[in-house]
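Format notes (please read before filing issues)

Several people have asked whether sequences and structure tokens are stored in separate files. They are not. Every record keeps both together, in the order shown below: the sequence lines, then the token lines. Line labels are part of the format and must not be stripped during preprocessing.
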Amino acid sequence: MAGKHAKKRRWPIVLGVIVVVLFAATVFLKMPGEPATQKLQPFFEQPIAHRGYFDNDSDAPENTLAAFQRAIDHGYAIEIDTQVTADGTAVVLHDKSLLRTSGVDKNVEEMTDAELAQCRVFGTDEHIPTLREVLDLIAGKVPLLVEIKGEAGDDVATISAKTAEELDSYQGVYVVQSFNPFALQWWMKNRPEVPRGILSKDFIADGEGQSIINRIALSGMFTNVLCRPNFLSYELKSSGQLTFAAMKKLSNLDCFAWTLKSQTELDEARAQGFKGFIFDSFEAHL
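Then the structure lines:
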């Protein structure tokens, strides 16, 4: 009889230990790196033009030199996306495929520099620029937020390395971000001095073809263990999620809101405590 009572008394202890271990493991997986507030400060002083200050129905479509020049003229910081061609050149383009922007049903990684140079963006005279062209144009005039593109299975180490090769000689202010934690892991190991941010949202509701395990890991930001990000870029419409609230409780990371489509959304993001504002499709004001 005494043995049965002893077993009953042990169960709450065992359950308590399990809860503590699970909580500690969760904190360890989610815990980010050190904040980089001082280096991020220039991005808090002006709105950040998503893919440049673009209009895809104009002669300054997204991720083109014309859109970047418009952003510079308005005094906006700039967000760009980098990928790599078959020749190993870092270029600036959002989509993996050129179908939407240029009507070519091929992926960037499959195209040579010469083939890509023939493509035009949304029927304009604008071409898909190399990262070097973009850096030469911006030349430190405004801060630069560089997103490393890369889906599951992509060679994000190569994309990161080729991007870094161009940025190493750049004299302007820049930071990097990515949805892919393995891309940020490369930056943590090879360019630890460059602030890195994890892009996130509610992947449970919008999984983008990811497996349920990946969706849970990405939504919960358990992948922080791989890259220890210095800041967080979070989708505004997902900002009511418990995982986002938990991250704010766990750390004092500075947060960027994306992608804001109106001044009302920018004001809402500011009211929620976001410090950086990634916008497109309107004239933004802080």
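For reference, the curators noted about this record: The first strand starts at residue 48 and ends at 50. The chain has twelve helices and eleven strands.
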